Task: structure prediction
Amino acid sequence: MPSATTEGIRVSVRPAYWKERSSPAAGLYAFTYTIRIENLGDAPARLLRRRWVIVDGHGRQEVVEGDGVVGQRPHLAPGETFEYTSWVPLGTPIGTMRGSFLMVRDDGRTFLAEIPEFVLTQPGALH
Result:
């Protein structure tokens, strides 16, 4: 499971192919990803925004930005964890995602918590 730690905030990712939502004959490949955000530091932080860079198997890049995650802006005290699952459609059976979360400390200081790059792959797509 890819993970990255920035200023005490560890972001881990668990991707999976979503067969039930995919239609390879129609060029649709769906993937879920579960994100786990852990505050390993000694100061609270709130997630304000997300930024994703999604690249398909042809190298086409899409940037997606927005407020919070799954309709929430979780506040993590030291030792707390927040986990959510979302999904992404691709036009190819393989791709990658990476990004960042804009976090803010209780004192107003902001920083970008890295979301490590991870691979989205339909089973059997890689030989």
User: Anything to note?
Assistant: The chain has one domain: 3-121. Strands lie at 3-6, 9-17, 29-39, 45-56, 61-67, 75-76, 81-90, 94-105, 110-121. The CA atoms of residues 17 and 123 lie 7 Å apart.
